[in-house]
Amino acid sequence: TVLLEKPTTFTITVTSEAGENDETVQTTLKFTYREKYPDETPLYEIVSQENLDDNDVMDIIKLLEQQAEENLGMVMIFTLVSAVQEKLNEIVDQIKTRREEEKKQKEREAEEEEKQRFHGTPVTIENFLNWKAKFDAELLEIKRKKMKEEEQAGKNKLSGKQLFEMDHNLDTSDIQFLEE
Question: Region (Disordered): which ranges (predicted)?
Fold first, then answer.
């Protein structure tokens, strides 16, 4: 867009290629020709910018300075705009990379949390023996309660299996009976 004829002043809006989710980075550059242009660098400034942080704006200004100095004596607006276009595309790529890294970092953190959740007490001989003693005591207590409940319910009669489990002398009693 041409703003003034004397001195020639115009703006050019430079937009990056669309990134993820059609995110774009955009800037509007204002150029003003000096009297001795192209033997003298044009005046330039960033009029507006979209989705750029301050560091990116400073990088673009430095890039414009460098390109203008390199192209003294030649018509350079196209070169300057092309350089800014490339820089904006790099910025979009950096944003993509940063987001992917953040996503990977979150996945790693979630994975670590999951590992921590399932990580228990390491088993050692001492730990196991302590646990086994407690477990056996709990089982014995459960059996005692069950026996008391059965006795109170009138189930004093033991089954054959229970008799053999309680008194091992019964294992050989049939053989002794037959011998007599």
Answer: 99-118
